[in-house]
């Protein structure tokens, strides 16, 4: 698959009539970003000019989080937030418990909410949206803005010769974290201004000329510490690839393979879990979040660095090859079609959970005993994980993604949103409870990563490290890019109930 054409390359600069934007230093120059914060909430009515009602369609983790955040941020402005649900939806009771009720019009039939809203934010499952988007389009009021938090629908439309309806602005605001993180960090932001989940935004159609400010307002209202620009196509490419790679699928395959490796070396199940899963979700994630990628290696002793370098050198190439394969299959529509086909097969049943193996039973004991020991990063595991993360950043950079998108989709989302949840519950829990699109991708590609690690990377790690690869990591452009992005968000550990 060739790199995206110049017409598809993200236009990273933007201006706003409402918000003060700033330049973020990145390896290739600068990108325009908006720094968020609750002090910007008074500007939301101006930025949402012409929007009197926002309809959030769907009540998954993103729907719940976004509806609650928008409602709280817009309280007292006269802009109403309503939730649209399918008739008989099992989510009605939970939406009601969160304050969205049919009696006051803040909850209703999904198509009725679509028809009565000026901004319609579509947060139903990807496959369901692909199947029912024409019903939504037909129900839109004239000139209503279509809002997305994922570009999956664009990929589906492109693959099937469809398009968004003319005359409607089409915007996207895409939080770089799971819905629970979007809500929990927003709540924490009441105490620490700027705490939240970063978001990208895209403007796909702008017939009235106000789409940028409308998207920025949406992101600010969600509590995003900083917002950067991308395109809808670039967003779904990086998002879906990331889910299948270092955000979820690769992590699943990695910890399974490492656990097996350590068992074969003679570790008991609990020690093997600590050296594999626990070291990724705990000390490695915390170090990257607070100090950056390079610190994972630099914090090791001399022997640990040698082990890290051998694991890194053996892992980088095979991981990069597999990530490139995933990217190609997302870009040509193969991966999107596999999601839709799987949803059709699973229409009347759910996927079997994967968390029943002995490895995950060991995790229960490890979590129960955390207070009794100090967990340090296993250097071999660290080398494998960091090599995979770096491979993804390089693949995205080669494909023309902006650096804000690269570091958020490859690093920040992992260490500030997903891995903390995996640490609290375990990786298997995340695979079994994430979005359907991500869950299907992790199940498809996790075993591919596991096989690559076991059959290619681990045997190769017996050789001496590659000095050129190690030096390329030490001087990598991702380090200053990540440092620039990290300065825009206060250090707040996500609360995990």
Explain what you see.
With 497 residues, this protein is α/β, with parallel strands linked by helices. It has 2 domains: 219 residues, Rossmann fold (3-Layer(aba) Sandwich); 246 residues, N-(1-d-carboxylethyl)-l-norvaline Dehydrogenase, domain 2, CATH 1.10.1040.10. The chain contains 21 helices and 10 strands. Helix 9 crosses helix 13, helix 10 packs across helix 11 and helix 16 packs antiparallel against helix 17. The N terminus is likely disordered.
Q: Helical stretch count?
A: 21
The total domain count is 2
Sheet with the most strands? Answer: 10 strands, mixed
- What are the segments in which pLDDT stays under 50 over at least 5 consecutive residues? 1-10
- What portion of residues is helical? 55-70%
- The CATH H-level superfamily of the largest domain is N-(1-d-carboxylethyl)-l-norvaline Dehydrogenase, domain 2
Strand content: 5-15%
Mean pLDDT comes to: 93
Q: What is the distance, rounded to the nearest whole angstrom, between the alpha carbons of the first and last residues?
A: 42 Å
Q: Quote the CATH topology of the largest domain.
A: N-(1-d-carboxylethyl)-l-norvaline Dehydrogenase, domain 2
What is the CA-atom radius of gyration, in angstroms? 22 Å
Strands, count: 10
Backbone structural class: alpha/beta
In order across it, which strands form the biggest sheet?
1-2-10-9-8-7-6-3-4-5
| Name given to the CATH architecture of the largest domain | Orthogonal Bundle
> CATH class of the largest domain, anyone?
Mainly Alpha
Shape: globular
Pathway: Amino-acid biosynthesis; L-isoleucine biosynthesis; L-isoleucine from 2-oxobutanoate: step 2/4; Amino-acid biosynthesis; L-valine biosynthesis; L-valine from pyruvate: step 2/4
Cofactor: Mg(2+)
Binding site for Mg(2+) 1: 239, 243
Binding site for Mg(2+) 2: 239
């Amino acid at each position: 698959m060739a790199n995206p054409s110049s017409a598809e390359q993200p236009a990273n600069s933007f201006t706003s009539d409402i918000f003060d934007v700033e330049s973020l230093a990145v390896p290739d120059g600068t990108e325009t970003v908006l720094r968020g914060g609750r002090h910007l909430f008074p500007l939301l009515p101006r930025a949402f000019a012409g929007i009197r009602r926002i309809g959030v369609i769907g009540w998954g983790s993103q729907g719940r989080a976004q509806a609650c955040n928008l409602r709280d941020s817009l309280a007292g402005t006269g802009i109403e937030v309503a939730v649209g649900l399918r008739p008989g939806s099992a989510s009605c009771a939970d939406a009601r418990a969160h304050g969205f009720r049919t009696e006051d019009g803040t909850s209703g039939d999904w198509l009725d909410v679509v028809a009565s809203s000026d901004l319609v934010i579509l947060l139903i499952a990807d496959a369901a949206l692909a199947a029912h988007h024409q019903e939504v389009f037909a129900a839109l009021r004239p000139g209503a803005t279509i809002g997305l938090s994922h570009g999956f629908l664009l990929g589906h439309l492109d693959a099937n010769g469809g398009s968004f309806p003319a005359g409607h602005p089409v915007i996207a605001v895409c939080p770089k974290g799971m819905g629970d993180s979007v809500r929990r960090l927003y709540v924490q932001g009441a105490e620490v201004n700027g705490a939240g989940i970063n978001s990208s935004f895209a403007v796909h159609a702008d017939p009235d000329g106000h789409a940028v400010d409308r998207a920025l307002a949406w992101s600010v209202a969600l509590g995003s510490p900083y917002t950067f620009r991308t395109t809808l196509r670039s967003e779904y490419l990086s998002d879906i690839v990331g889910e299948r790679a270092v955000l979820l699928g690769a992590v699943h395959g990695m910890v399974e393979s490492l656990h097996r490796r350590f068992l074969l070396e003679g570790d008991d199940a609990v020690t093997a879990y600590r050296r594999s899963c626990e070291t990724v979700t705990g000390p490695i994630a915390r170090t990257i979040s607070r100090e950056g990628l390079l610190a994972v290696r630099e914090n090791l002793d001399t022997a640990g660095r040698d082990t890290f370098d051998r694991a890194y050198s053996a892992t980088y190439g095979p991981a990069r090859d597999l990530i490139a394969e995933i990217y190609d299959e997302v870009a040509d529509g193969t991966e999107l079609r596999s999601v839709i086909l799987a949803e059709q097969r699973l229409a009347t049943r759910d996927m079997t959970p994967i968390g029943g193996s002995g490895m995950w039973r060991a995790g229960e004991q490890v979590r129960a005993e955390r207070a009794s020991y100090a967990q340090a990063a296993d250097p071999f595991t660290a080398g494998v994980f960091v090599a995979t993360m770096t491979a993804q950043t390089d693949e995205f950079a080669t494909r023309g993604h902006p650096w804000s998108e690269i570091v958020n989709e490859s690093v920040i989302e992992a260490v500030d949103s997903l891995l903390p949840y995996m640490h609290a519950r375990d990786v298997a829990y995340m695979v079994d409870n994430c979005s359907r699109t991500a869950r299907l991708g992790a199940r498809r590609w996790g075993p591919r990563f596991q096989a690559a690690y076991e059959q290619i990377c681990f045997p190769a790690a017996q050789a001496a490290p590659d000095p050129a690869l190690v030096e390329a990591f030490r001087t990598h452009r991702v380090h200053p890019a990540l440092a620039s992005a990290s300065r825009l968000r206060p250090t707040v550990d996500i609360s995990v109930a």
